[in-house]
Design goal:
Blueprint lengths: L3 E2 L26 E8 L9 E9 L10 H5 L2 E3 L2 E5 L5 E4 L1 H14 L7 H14 L11 E10 L11 E11 L10 E5 L17 H16 L4 E5 L7 E4 L2 E7 L2 E4 L10 H12 L3 E4 L4 H9 L3 E8 L3 E10 L2 E4 L7 H14 L10 E3 L2
Parallel strand pairs: 1-3, 9-10, 9-16, 13-14
Antiparallel strand pairs: 2-3, 2-8, 4-7, 5-6, 5-7, 6-18, 7-8, 10-11, 11-12, 12-13, 12-15, 15-16, 16-17
Helix pairs in contact: 2-3
This protein binds 2-OXO-4-methylpentanoic acid.
C-alpha cells in the first residue's frame, strides 16, 4: 500500500509551548495524523482490504452515528513515545512490541489484522514530519497514540466489516502531576477490572471506561489511582489503573504474572529484563494482598512501584487496603526504583548505551 502525504502550510501549523513544563499529558496535539481504512466490501473493488493510507492534517473525523465503535465499543489503542536526544536525534522505544500487542488486542476483538511493519514506517514518517513537536525538557516526550476502531454503520452485534486506524501525536510531560514522586494508591475492594477469559490483556478502551468509577471514588478520597485485585477471589494484586505493579519484598522483585487479566506492559517487560540483568531476583507470580500486608508489617516490603509508557516508573509511597495504610520506604523513592527509573530513562534519551537494541531511530 502506498503512503500518501499532505502537509499543512507552515503558517497554519501550531508549535510547542515556550514553557514545556506546562505540557501536562495528552492535552495538545500536533498538526498531522496518520490514517488508513479497511473495508470488506466487494462493491468498491478499489477500497477492498486496507486502503487510503495517508498522513494529513490533524482534525475531526466524520463517522456515521450508527458506527459499531459507538455502540459496542469495538476499539483498541496503544501508547508509545518518541524521545529527543541531546543531539536532537529522535528515537522510538520498542515500537514493534506495542504494535504486536495491538495486533493481539485486535485479534481478541475480532478486528482485522494490519501490517505492523507498514504501520511502523508510517509512524516513523509521521514523527519525522512532526519532529519540531518533540519536546526537549527532562521528563517530556512525544506520546504516540495508535487507535483502531470499527466503523461499519450497523446495529446488529457483530464484528465490523469496516475499520479506521489512525495515529495521533501529543507532546507530553509526566503523566502524574507530581512527576517522579511517590503516589498514594488505594487497593480496590469491590469493583474489578478484568476477569479470567475476559479482555484484561488487551488495550481496549472499554477496560479504561470500566475503571473510571473506582478511580473517581479513589480520587475523591485523596488517592492517585486504584490497585486492582483479581476478579475471582479478590485476593491477588493485578495492576494499577495505568501501570503494572511491582513490589520489592525481601530480596525479590515481584509482579503479577501474565495470566490474561493484566496488560502485558512493554515497560513492565523492559524493567524485568533490566532488573534480572542487574542480578536482582525477579518473580512473576501471584502475590496476594495479604502477603503484601504481612511484608509491610514485618518490614520486608521495602519498595513498590508501577510501570507504564505514560507512567514510566512511578514510585508508590502509600498503599491502603480496607482500614490499613502501608507507608512504603517512609513514603520516599526506593533505591531499586530509582536505579531502574534512572537507567530506563537514560536508555530512552540516549544518555546510556542501549544494550538490548530497544531503540529505533526516526531521524
Ligand atoms: C500508556 O501508558 O501508554 C497508557 O496507555 C496509559 C494510559 C494513559 C491509558
Amino acid at each position: 500500500m502506498e503512503l500518501k502525504t499532505e502537509i499543512k502550510p507552515k503558517d497554519k501549523c501550531g508549535k510547542l509551548p515556550a514553557d514545556e513544563s506546562t505540557l501536562g499529558f495528552g492535552v495538545i496535539f500536533t498538526d498531522h495524523m496518520f490514517s488508513m481504512s479497511y473495508s470488506e466490501s466487494k462493491a468498491k473493488e478499489r477500497d477492498k482490504g486496507w486502503h487510503d493510507a495517508k498522513i494529513g492534517p490533524y482534525g475531526p473525523i466524520s463517522l456515521d452515528p450508527a458506527a459499531i465503535v459507538f455502540h459496542y465499543g469495538q476499539e483498541v489503542f496503544e501508547g508509545m513515545k518518541a524521545y529527543r536526544w541531546k543531539n536532537d536525534d529522535i528515537y522510538l522505544f520498542r515500537p514493534m512490541k506495542n504494535l504486536e500487542r495491538m495486533l493481539a488486542s485486535a485479534e481478541r476483538m475480532v478486528m482485522q489484522p494490519f501490517a505492523a511493519p507498514f504501520v511502523l514506517e508510517a509512524i516513523k514518517e509521521l514523527v519525522k514530519i512532526e519532529k519540531d513537536w518533540v519536546p526537549k525538557s527532562p521528563m517530556t516526550s512525544l506520546y504516540i497514540r495508535p487507535t483502531y476502531i470499527g466503523t461499519k454503520a450497523i446495529l446488529g452485534v457483530q464484528p465490523s466489516s469496516e475499520y479506521l486506524f489512525y495515529v495521533i501525536l501529543s507532546p507530553v510531560g509526566a503523566y502524574y502531576a507530581t512527576g517522579f514522586n511517590p503516589v498514594k494508591i488505594l487497593v480496590e475492594e469491590k469493583f474489578v477490572r478484568a476477569s479470567p477469559g475476559g479482555v484484561g490483556f488487551t488495550k481496549a478502551g472499554g477496560n479504561y471506561a470500566a475503571s473510571l468509577l473506582a478511580a473517581k471514588k479513589a480520587k475523591e478520597r485523596g488517592y492517585t489511582q486504584v490497585l486492582w485485585l483479581d476478579a475471582a477471589e479478590h485476593k491477588y494484586v493485578e495492576e494499577v489503573g495505568t501501570m503494572n505493579q511491582f513490589f520489592v519484598i525481601g530480596d525479590t522483585i515481584l509482579t503479577a504474572p501474565l495470566t490474561g487479566s493484566i496488560l502485558p506492559g512493554v515497560t513492565r517487560d523492559s524493567i524485568i529484563h533490566m532488573a534480572k540483568d542487574y542480578g536482582y531476583k525477579v518473580e512473576e507470580r501471584l502475590v496476594s494482598i495479604d502477603e503484601v500486608i504481612t511484608a509491610s508489617e514485618n518490614g520486608t516490603l521495602t519498595e513498590a512501584f508501577g510501570t507504564g509508557t505514560a507512567a514510566v516508573v512511578t514510585p508508590v509511597g502509600e498503599l491502603c487496603y480496607k482500614d490499613k495504610c502501608m507507608v512504603i520506604n517512609d513514603g520516599k523513592v526506593g533505591k531499586i526504583t530509582q536505579r531502574l527509573y534512572d537507567d530506563l530513562v537514560a536508555i530512552q534519551y540516549g544518555e546510556k548505551k542501549d544494550p538490548y537494541d530497544w531503540l529505533v531511530k526516526v531521524c
